Amino acid sequence: MSEPKVIAQRGLYFEELATGVLYQHKPGRTMTETDNVLFTTMTMNTQALHLDAAWSATQPFGQRLMNSMFTLATMVGQSVGQLTQGTIVAQLGMSEITFPHPLFHGDTLYTETVVTQKRLSSSRPGQGIVTMVHTGRNQDGVVVGTASRTALFWLTPTA
Known about the structure:
The protein is α+β, with helices and mostly antiparallel strands.
């Protein structure tokens, strides 16, 4: 009996990423109260807008908000399976991070990514630098977060 063909799940190598393409990451992730309280307390963020339901009810949004760092981390995380799983060398930085609308308990986050720039690394043979913009939307299509992210990617391995 012959060995089965092996297909490993991975992200995209530098050459496979195309600028201007919209990569949609599925499935979405529904945010829970547990997610918010656990992440907020694990990161020692004592902001009442995440933890105190009674006080938050008196604030402009009338309820607790999802921790924006959890929103950002989930946006990046949703892109991993499709773009960076096993093909990223390192994250180099993030910029232009915005949260134009809050995310609440029970909302579902959907993320998409557009590669805006890419170039070969001048100092690291076999690697390239990619800049991408992640956009997170809630279940109604409202943008809840954006972030520009630069990462170092592997080029396709040679045999």
